[in-house]
């Protein structure tokens, strides 16, 4: 049965260097971030060297609208560091040396409190053989999770969805309970359980969850990329399956949830699983159905408790 949840003294740059015995790279970084900008000043810049192209430093440049603090936050962010790591991974763009990253233009930084939520930049990547630039506009938002919840009731299986206002597409969308990771700890399962509770009111246990994306080939990284042509978002899809009585289905239907103080306008929608594939255009739903059905066909799903 599924359970329900009821002021400091300023120091000059020279004095800081004397006290801390900074390395040359750290002094360069301080000079980069601490100089003041005027309308006629050159853009903020920073240089990094990647292990995959030691003789070709990468220039990081800030667009005119980017402040010193935003530029520093962007370069130090887990979003940007993970992107660079992906670029140099075994399946990465830079692996093998056929392509070269020469410049990154930081164009936009959206803060979620004290951390970066979204990062927009353009990467100049060139094919060494042809000299042509590869399209490199990036909207970075990082990892996320989604959960396919299947509830059996009176010999019928239902899927639990959320109806949400999605301004980027200008529509109200039926989709899986989902959310972004709030920190750099990589707690995908914990985030999935928390998002389900916030968006549906259903409280799940870790031992009852199945990672559907873990069935993907190891070369994929075990996550799906819904829009790799422009966005770095990678999603782990989880499955929960259980049995409930008809009253629970009725209680869930139309339930208003979400963190209203954060602008979340969410309504729970319960639909027959057999109709799920054609009731929404949410890519997470369609990917979860495909993974669930193929995993079931291949006998990969563990015995799910009632």
From TrEMBL:
PROSITE patterns attached here? NUDIX
Sorted alphabetically, which InterPro entries does this protein's record hold?
NUDIX_hydrolase-like_dom_sf, NUDIX_hydrolase_dom
- Superkingdom assignment: Eukaryota
Chain ranges passing through the membrane = none
Q: Which UniProt keywords apply?
A: Hydrolase
Tell me the cofactors it needs. Mg(2+)
Q: Does the keyword Hydrolase apply?
A: yes
Q: Where is the Nudix hydrolase domain?
A: 140-293
Q: Name one GO biological process term.
A: ribose phosphate metabolic process
The record's listing under CDD domains reads: NUDIX_ADPRase_Nudt5_UGPPase_Nudt14
Gene Ontology MF terms: ADP-glucose pyrophosphohydrolase activity; ADP-ribose pyrophosphohydrolase activity
Q: What is this protein called?
A: PREDICTED: nudix
Instruction: Show the taxonomic lineage.
Output: Eukaryota, Viridiplantae, Streptophyta, Embryophyta, Tracheophyta
């Amino acid at each position: 049965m599924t359970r329900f949840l009821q002021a400091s003294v300023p120091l000059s740059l020279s004095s800081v260097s004397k006290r801390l015995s900074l390395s040359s790279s750290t002094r360069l970084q301080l000079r980069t971030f601490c100089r003041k900008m005027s309308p006629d000043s050159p853009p903020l810049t920073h240089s990094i060297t990647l292990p995959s192209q030691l003789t070709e430093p990468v220039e990081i440049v800030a667009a005119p609208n980017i402040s010193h603090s935003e530029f520093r936050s962007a370069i130090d962010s887990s979003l940007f560091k993970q992107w660079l790591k992906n670029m140099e991974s075994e399946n990465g763009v830079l692996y093998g040396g056929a392509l070269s990253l020469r410049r990154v233009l930081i164009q936009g930084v959206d803060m979620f409190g004290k951390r970066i939520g979204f990062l927009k930049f353009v990467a100049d990547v060139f094919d060494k053989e042809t000299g042509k630039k590869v399209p490199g506009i990036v909207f970075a938002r990082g990892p996320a999770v989604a959960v396919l919840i299947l509830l059996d009731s009176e010999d019928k299986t239902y899927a639990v969805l959320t109806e949400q206002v999605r301004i980027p597409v200008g529509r109200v969308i039926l989709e899986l309970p989902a959310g972004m990771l709030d920190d750099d700890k990589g707690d995908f399962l914990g985030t999935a359980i928390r998002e389900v509770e916030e968006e549906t009111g259903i409280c799940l246990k870790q031992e009852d969850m199945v990672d559907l994306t873990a069935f993907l080939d190891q070369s994929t990284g075990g996550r799906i990329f819904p829009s790799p042509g422009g966005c770095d978002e990678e999603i782990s899809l989880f499955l929960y399956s259980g049995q409930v009585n008809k009253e629970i289905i009725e209680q869930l239907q139309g339930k208003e949830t979400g963190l209203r103080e954060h602008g979340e306008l969410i309504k729970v929608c319960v639909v027959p699983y057999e109709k799920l594939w054609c009731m929404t255009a949410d890519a997470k739903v369609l990917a979860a159905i495909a993974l669930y059905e193929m995993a079931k066909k291949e006998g990969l799903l563990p015995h799910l408790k009632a």
